[in-house]
Amino acid sequence: MPENVLNEIRQWTKDNFTPANKIQQIYLQKGGWEGWAQVELALHFTAIGGWNCQREIQVYHGSQKRADLLLTAEDGPPNTTIIELKTEALWRDDDGADKFVKSMKEDLYKIDHNNIDPKYLPARLIVFGCTFVPAVSEYATNPDNWGQYAQYVTGMKLLGRPDDFVGLYSWSLDIEVLADGKVELSTSRVHYGGMEVEGQTLSSQLS
């Protein structure tokens, strides 16, 4: 597996935002682009080699809820990464900037309240959200809107001028589930003062 799955997802997002602007084009279509992103990311990770990548797999013990992507090593010791994606979409999230953050928190709630099937443990979970709408990014920048997860969320500006709030942003959480099922969340690089972006906090850009 790549050493850093989260960085791989970020780079894939940037590559598909320019130069063909695929994400921007699909963004205008009804239904959003999350399903497309699932397929393309699955193909991307499969092309890297050394692992299996599957979509919509039931990984939560005692629940019918499914993970967006499941990465497992083809050989060697157990090495599982579960990915939950959340993509902000024009037709789905036009009823308020808070819906994007709410949707990501629902994925976190799913992880918190559903045990991972023991056959996939130990595992790393990546919750990754992406938006390029300023109002949504501004809402996500406020740590108060993340509740109990605020100190674990890392915000990054993937594309755009450093002095311009308009750009492509990602919001992510890195979660480790140990062999005994215990959940450990990795703290973000910047705590309650704001989210990291190119050496600055997003909150400082809004002040």
UniProtKB/TrEMBL annotation:
This is Uncharacterized protein. It comes from Alternaria burnsii. The lineage of its organism: Eukaryota, Fungi, Dikarya, Ascomycota, Pezizomycotina.
